[in-house]
Amino acid sequence: MQVSKEEILHIANLAQLELKEDEIEKYMLHLQDILNFANIVKNAPVEGLDITVGANELKNVFRKDEVKQFEDTNSLLQNAPTQEQNMFKIPKVIN
Amino acid sequence: MEITELTVHELQEKIKNKELTIKEINEAYIKRIKEKEPDVQAFITELTEQGLEQAQKIQNKIDNGEKLGELAGIPIGIKDMICTKGIKTTAASKMLENFVAPYDATVMEKINAEEMINLGKLNMDEFAMGGSTEYSYFKKTRNPWDLSRVPGGSSGGSAAAVAANMVPWALGTDTGGSIRQPASFCGIVGLKPTYGLVSRYGVIAFASSLDQVGVFTKDVQDCAMLLNVIAGHDEKDTTSVDIGKKDYTKSLQKNIEGLKIGVPKEFYGDGINPEVKESLNNAILQYKEMGAQVEEFSLDIAQYALATYYIIACAEASSNLGRYDGIRYTYRSKEAKSLKEIYKKSRSEAFGAEVKRRIILGTYVLSSGYYDAYYKRAQQVRTLVMNQFNEAFEKYDIIITPTSPTVAFKIGEKSSNPMEMYLSDICTVSINIAGLPGISIPCGVDKEGMPIGMQLVSKRFGEETIIKAAYAYEQKTKFREKYKPTFKK
Predict the structure, then answer these.
(1) Is residue B220 pLDDT above 80, yes or no?
(2) A69 pLDDT exceeds 90?
(3) How far apart (Å, rounded) are the C-alpha atoms in residues A59 and B37?
């Protein structure tokens, strides 16, 4: 399994990661190693088997759509690096 | 015997007989932390001062004749993956270095309702990704049996703190072996419950379809007691299952006559250290002597399990860790100017190498062109794994395997080779894939005195069966009376 530099940069971009030059090389090799190992799943006899998403039988869990007040807004906001007027603050997106 | 060597049920006995007070117990543990923590490095956040205040309050209540619960005032340690209101919860990541949880995880609410005393948040691999606790952003925890070795991971701080008697018991999380493997490396009991038995609400997510909270204890009786506290349906976790309230201490029985044990030969192959194999074979003989019916069988999904696990776990992680955007969770790059830069630079600076590696793998297997070949395929293999376990549990009550292919390895031995580290999970991951309960209990030591762990697995919600089987073995073999951590350097 070969992974190209372009591919690793594409994947990093999808994952919102910026890789340094030495990291690109390192992750390329690691990804190749791991994929070579992971390729064994292609030999598994899974013809006709459904996929499993979770270990439990998945069923919808319904509840009443009621607003519950979270009392301590401040404790949520204090974890944000910047905030203003009870909101998360980010740089201007649209000029 | 030192106070800190006692199990929780032994502490309870002494409290009841007025031989010990809550204050004395907590003071003894806090003293022990002061003595041993410089060597072991199990804590990210120590809560000893608050702990002492709490102990005093509970002591006052008792002295005033108030009736409290049986676990009131008993200390505990909590893996730093579990949210604790008003207390830093870091997941051992630079990303969450200053994150203060705004609410308690459901399991913490249960611990607090019992008035247990949280003496600290325990070290782990960053976001629970690793098998040695070397990938913590903060520190490397050392194994109390040999300080030059790892305690296992990812819940290495929890395992080491219990083994070093710095807390009598602790909570951890297990996605692919993160409770059982460190319990095995540190010579204690570690239980990963059935997926859905314990609420994941307020537990930092790694791989949501595999993650489960569980317990580290000194013996099986304590394990049943702590499981009683944390198990139960929670409407805030839609994957949690309502099976009604059970008392797991009722399973602490010594008679296992007729218990049907399956031994899957694929878990005893070439990759398993010979001393580990020998120890397991002796344990199986012991079970036969105790009246169990033992049979070898084939579980050939074992060869696919590790690859399947890493595909699924990393895919889910890449999605779960998308929330760390540099906006809501404390860390933001100082270099970033635009919104896009905030995402990219914050994540690149604050995630460690292993976390990035897994995000990259997870993003890859979910990306267009590879989804079917890896992710979808792995989900089909997951069905195969579950089917094979279901078949096995039609024949057997429990399955016995080694917990890990080796004993605890040296610090630095595997940290630069990801595939080597992943192989450490080979015996545990399939249990998470199938959502089964698994317990690791010590079953011997190797030539160098390092503990070896045995994993007992049962069908979904079969905790009672593995607790019974583990208890019977423990009472017969008395590991704790024979072996103790030496803190050798």
Answers:
(1) yes
(2) no
(3) 46
Q: How far is A19 from chain B (nearest CA, A)?
A: 7
CA distance A88 to chain B (A): 7
Q: Which residues of B are known to be catalytic?
A: 79, 154, 178
Which of B83, B308, B382 has the most A C-beta neighbours within 10 Å, making it the best mutation to test the interface with A? B382
Interface touch A34/B241, C-beta < 8 Å = no
- ipTM score of complex: 0.95
Encode pLDDT of B447-478 as tens digits.
999 999 999 999 999 999 999 999 999 999 99
* CB contact (8 A) between residue A79 and residue B460: no
Query: What domain count does chain A have?
Result: 1
> Which domain does A9 fall in, by range?
5-43
Dmax over CA atoms of chain B, in Å, equals 69
On the question of pLDDT at A95 being above 90, the answer is no
pLDDT at B416: 86
Measured between CA atoms, the residue of chain B closest to residue A82 is: B327
Record the tokens describing residue B419, joined without a space: 């595939």
Q: What domains are there in chain B, each with its CATH number?
A: 3-259+437-482 (3.90.1300.10)
